[in-house]
Amino acid sequence: MKVNIDFRFIRWLKCGTFIDGSVVYAEALWDHVTMDDQELGFKAGDVIEVVDATNKEWWWGRIMDSEGWFPASFVRLRVNQDEPMEEYLAHLEEAQAGEEDQAALGLLLGPGLPCKEQMRTNVINEIMSTERDYIKHLKDICEGYIKQCRKRTDMFTEEQLRTIFGNIEEIYRFQRKFLKGLEKKFNKEQPHLSEIGCCFLEHQTDFQIYSEYCNNHPNACVQLSKLMKVNKYVFFFEACRLLQKMIDISLDGFLLTPVQKICKYPLQLAELLKYTNPQHRDYKDVEAALNAMKNVARLINERKRRLENIDKIAQWQSSIEDWEGEDVLSRSSDLIFSGELTKLSQPQAKSQQRMFFLFDHQMVYCKKDLLRRDMLYYKGRVDMDHMEVMDVEDGKEKDFNISVKNALKLRSLAGDEVHLLCAKKPEQKQRWLRAFADERRQVQHDRETGFSLTEVQKKQAMLNACKSHPAGKPKGNNHQTGYSVRGHQSPLSRGYRYV
């Protein structure tokens, strides 16, 4: 069977576009997590229409109605533009190409090995090559930029440098150690026999240092953007780049690299596992490493989402009238669920309609304004760390001596505080019971992974919220309060894993 190699593809690689207006498609090897409005996000396996590839590092592409820049290294161009890549790989071994086709295949796969072993060689070589390139990038940032910036105390404070560069020096030290481990396991003569899975397993917890960097990255972009509005900083950073003989990428491009790198590891390992025979000595380690790095990426993404939403929580608090006590962010960082419930409290068992907002560690309840139903007044909070949640059967409730329906009870562990809450429908009650269980799991997970907000992050979020609500402007509207008058799910929680 002869493989139909599309030689327009080879010409396109040289010039970046087809003269005859043909469309070029690429297949995503890894997820691309966007950090900028002009970037194109996609998942591994997505097919991207490549519009412009004149820049070697960043291409312009299109998926459905979305367009934007994306890193060229995250995709693989289809060799045969009219045929899915998987079908092409499936019959490579059977191909008996002509001399011209064979030469093209030799460039792509190399001679001498069965297809699967050659593909494993390619993936191993790519991992090693990208790792060495990455170390070079990190070195350039640390020695080319940070070292020079520290000499200019008239231009930069240490706090500014920490914001811009985060913990990238720590990442650089770790990655050098990691690369040494990879080099020891790399089989130069027969790369497909390399056993590198154990390297990822050995350092799986060390990769969590990327969480701090990824969470700080948006702040770095803001700080850098401010400085780049001043010519002396533009000239200084360009001088640093030229002095270090770095490639022609702006500093913000270099600073994006660690964010992309940590997302790329699980996808590289997935590709490696795909071309590793189950009988290979590295198979089990690669399989375990893939799961470990997926967990690392998942943890980082989860923390990133949490930190991106603390501004929304601060905005929500600033919209509540008559707020009392400490800020929500002093203890919490995740809105888990919200909705309207009937609250009964001892000793009179007085019935009150309240909006409840369940965060990790605490639950806040508010009263709606009688005339402006979108305005909320703070009425109190419950410390969930010292509460037990109890499902109450329909009928007579002994503590309150009243008949209830769709009820649940919150009782303090000390027994001195009891809240009886009633939902309108049985399914709403069940959703609240699941939410309370989710809250305890979240607290336990945060404790195990060491997640917490810094004082700087809390203060900055509250400061941003105060700025957005200047004195004299009304605070009561749906956009500002961030809750739905009709539903039980707050827009605050959009994007959270519990929705």
TrEMBL record:
Positions of the UniProt region annotated as Disordered: 468-499
An MF annotation (GO) of this entry: guanyl-nucleotide exchange factor activity
Record's keyword annotation contains Transmembrane: no
Biological-process GO terms, alphabetical: intracellular signal transduction
Domain SH3: 21-80
Ranges for domain DH: 119-303
PROSITE patterns per record: DH_1 (PS00741), DH_2 (PS50010), PH_DOMAIN (PS50003), SH3 (PS50002)
Principal cellular location given in the protein's record: cytoplasm
Superkingdom to which the source organism belongs: Eukaryota
Compartment annotation: Cytoplasm
Stored PANTHER family: RHO GUANINE NUCLEOTIDE EXCHANGE FACTOR 4, RHO GUANINE NUCLEOTIDE EXCHANGE FACTOR 4 ISOFORM X1
Claim: Plastid is one of the keywords in the record: no
Entry GO CC: cytoplasm
SMART domains registered for this protein in UniProt: PH (SM00233), RhoGEF (SM00325), SH3 (SM00326)
Protein name: Rho guanine nucleotide exchange factor 4
Sequence ranges assigned to domain PH in this UniProt record: 334-441
Keywords of the record: Cytoplasm, Guanine-nucleotide releasing factor, SH3 domain
